[in-house]
From TrEMBL:
Biological role: Prenyltransferase that catalyzes the transfer of the geranylgeranyl moiety of geranylgeranyl diphosphate (GGPP) to the C3 hydroxyl of sn-glycerol-1-phosphate (G1P). This reaction is the first ether-bond-formation step in the biosynthesis of archaeal membrane lipids.
Name of the protein in question: Geranylgeranylglyceryl phosphate synthase
Native source species: Methanohalobium evestigatum (strain ATCC BAA-1072 / DSM 3721 / NBRC 107634 / OCM 161 / Z-7303)
Main location: cytoplasm
Keywords: Cytoplasm, Lipid biosynthesis, Lipid metabolism, Magnesium, Metal-binding, Phospholipid biosynthesis, Phospholipid metabolism, Transferase
Binding site for sn-glycerol 1-phosphate: 171-177, 203-204, 225-226
Gene3D superfamilies named among the record's database cross-references: FMN-linked oxidoreductases (3.20.20.390)
GO BP terms, alphabetized: glycerophospholipid biosynthetic process
Binding positions (Mg(2+)): 23, 52
Pathway: Membrane lipid metabolism; glycerophospholipid metabolism
Cofactor annotation: Mg(2+)
Pfam families: PcrB
Gene Ontology cellular component list: cytoplasm
């Protein structure tokens, strides 16, 4: 399956893509598979797998293997470093944290991981990864020079740089568990310059209304992670959010 085409077709025909993020460190592989199964039933379009800490090696492989046994929607690696590459995924967000102060997160981990992506034949989806305030764990780990919430023009500058470098997707990340995602003003300003390039928004989206505001502002794809860890009914929670963003 061509995952990028699959996502872009959903974006074109159904309005918005919903992605569920599963951190392999947060539960057992079997539990991750149950969550993925429920998320797919709730209408999520793909499962992103990754996390900042303890999310690699056998645990990452097993999590992907179990998820793929249980669901037919695609899996996409969301790696924090070169250790976040696994042979058991359909695709990888091949991303550069453009606003990091640390070259390891801009090009070095990418270079160390690239030969594995090549060897495993995983589809690569190029992405400019931008971390805005508050940034959370990923902001700390990635040594991001956090983009201030009230400075859409800085997010616009980085997004344009990513686009001109040839990246197809841009991800505005507030950090997992953030109080709120990127502001509608920032999303709108970034989407305006991105044009047909896809804009992903994540970090701090917990309810349908917040998701809808992001979509109305211009987000093409919405990521939710924490919400599936906190709810007792994953399918119902995802369904609420998905029904709020499809055909918005
Ligand atoms: C984190 O943007 C994702 O990388 C998801 O954030 O856990 O807040 O949904 P949440």
């Amino acid at each position: 399956m061509q995952v990028e085409k699959y996502l872009n077709d959903i974006s074109k025909n159904q309005g918005t893509v919903h992605l569920t993020l599963i951190d392999p460190a947060s539960q057992s592989p079997d539990e991750a598979a149950e969550i993925a199964f429920a998320a797919a039933n709730g209408g999520s379009d793909a499962i992103m797998v990754g996390g900042s800490i303890e999310a690699g090696g056998a645990l990452l492989d097993q999590t992907l293997i179990k998820i793929r046994e249980k669901t037919s929607i695609p899996t996409i690696l969301f790696p924090a470093n070169a250790g976040g590459v696994s042979a058991y995924s359909d695709a990888i967000f091949f991303m550069s944290l453009l606003n990091s102060r640390d070259i390891n997160y801009i090009t070095t981990n990418q270079a160390m991981g690239a030969p594995l992506v090549y060897k495993f034949g995983i589809e690569s989806i190029s992405m400019a990864y931008l971390i805005i305030e508050p940034g959370g764990t990923v902001g700390w780990v990635g040594d991001a020079k956090l983009i201030p919430k009230n400075k859409p023009e800085i997010a616009v500058s980085y997004s344009l740089a990513g686009k001109y470098l040839g990246m197809h997707y841009t991800y505005l990340e507030a950090g997992s568990g953030a109080d709120e995602p990127a502001s509608p003003e920032m999303i709108k300003a970034v989407k305006k310059v991105l044009g047909d390039n896809k804009l992903i928004v994540g970090g701090g989206i917990r309810d349908p209304e917040t998701a809808r505001v992001c979509v109305k502002a211009g987000a093409d794809m919405i990521v939710t992670g924490t919400v599936v860890e906190e709810t007792s009914d994953v399918a119902a929670k995802i369904e609420e959010i998905v029904s709020a963003i499809k055909n918005e």
